Amino acid sequence: MTGHPVPDIVTFKARDGVELSAAVYRPQTAEPVPALFAAAPYRFDNNSLPASPQFLWRETGPIDFYVAQGYAYVHLDLRGCGRSGGSFEFLGPNEQTDLYDAIEWIAAQPWSTGKVGSIGQSYFCMVQWFLGKLAPPSLACIGAHDGLAEVYNGGVYHGGIACDFFPGYWWYQNRFINRFPASGPGRAQDTDLMQLIAAHPLYDDFWHERSAQHVLDQIKVPLFSSGVWGKMQLHTRGNIDGYLKARGPKKLRMSGALNAWAAAAEFASSTFHERVLLPFYDRYLKDIDNGWEHRPNVEYALRGSDIVKTADQWPPADVVYRTMYLNAAKSGSVTSLNDGGLADDLPPDAPSTSYTYPVPGWVAGTTGFGPTGPAGGFDPARRVLTFTSAPLPKDLAIAGPIRLTLYAASTGTDTDFHIKLSDQRPQSPEDRSKGLNPSYEIVSRGWLRASHRTLDEAQSTREVPVHLHDREVPLVPNDIARFEIAIEPQAYFFKAGHRIRLEICCGDSPVTEALWPHYYRPDKMGTDTIYHSAEHPSALVLPMIEV
Hints:
There is one protein chain. By secondary structure, this protein is an alpha/beta fold. The chain folds into two domains: 8-288, Rossmann fold; 320-545, Galactose-binding domain-like (Jelly Rolls, Sandwich). It is built from 13 helices and 25 strands. It has helices at residues 63-68, 93-107, 123-126, 131-134, 151-156, 165-179, 193-198, 205-208, 236-245, 260-268, 270-285, 429-433, 510-513, and strands at 8-13, 19-25, 33-40, 72-77, 112-118, 139-145, 157-158, 161-162, 223-228, 250-255, 298-302, 307-311, 320-327, 340-343, 352-357, 368-370, 373-379, 385-388, 396-410, 416-424, 440-449, 481-494, 499-505, 526-531, 539-545. Strand 3, helix 1 (63-68) and strand 4 form a beta-alpha-beta unit. The two termini are 44 Å apart.
């Protein structure tokens, strides 16, 4: 048990008559208190479970901590979930307006001061981005932690490539925990999310009304956008875009938590909330003059180190963009399909690199075994293309958006590009002579389906290419095309002696992607060619900062 106070279970009607249910946790006082509002499909009946990373969806934050601080905490079951009526819409229009109705219901209660702030991680955060458009009068502030804002490209179709996460793992998990809750009656959910997603492979009206990206600039109330670098496959860009586009008082914080499980543990911690989020809520829900406004606009962890940096803006004002060109020169540091190079100078001769797929040595997606076979485990770099720098002569840090310009051709009319930017660590000569690959850490990722390469000229910048995803433009087989690929923004510290490595393949693997793999399509058979010449200079652009 978590030690939560026993909630009052309440019901009220949304504007269309659907009955919504919420758990209200309140401090034992006769005085009105401000409220924190959380909404998600994971049902409040599961809050009696421990908020441990075993239950990744326990993303409320420490309810008992906030109640002890003098806040009411209201956890809404979204329509079609838990004890609420209706059918689940996956961020649909009724789900959005329910947020308005719930916040105004909270503000009207006799125990409420009339001030409401939003709270919660992941889906709890995803719904918060719509609050600017909805503008409930009683909303005083938004505490958006670790949540995407653009659902199509952010997690369902990465770069136009179908991701398994939402229709597979996530929807199975949600239906399971709704059917077998820790307490209360179980419920079945009839929404066929897999079919809904499959029916909308392009960015259309279905996705437009479910993506908050185009309404972020309507956020006028104070915003604390609190993101996680390690959630780049889902949420990272949402928190950065939310901060950049919001129009009211705002601050950005980016955590160095390495993955979803570490991020869940961090957000469940009372220590984290006491240090990070409580001062924000105290300032805007209790009018406490605690100096919040004087804190840095941006605070971010520099992954790969224990450094935390601050800035007045994002990206930091001192960013200098460095271009590194792909080439065919052997790095001699890694065993892969090609072992290409990455350097500051334009590439010499050997203008292209090709590979044919599916590669016979692939086992789990595009990952195969190492040189000793199954007993030696998986080796993700061995059967993909790599372009690796020389050992870095000194420490190097990046902070900001990352871009890859790729010139490529395919024997087919379409292909996929899965990109990984990695920190390759030094390796002993003995291990290199055995054909073992060096250890590494994935710094960031990018994706693009070739037929989705049409840019959104209105939204794209030199540093951040944005694609329309509303049409498919087939490739002309064997013709060279240019692709602008956004690699997810990141802040990272590369140590002297390490190498920067770029990995390119037409697929990925659950070995490297954990919850967010992209199932390999059986119709992907062919040969892709990456061009790297003076005429076709494929290049990685990194946002360099001083350390």
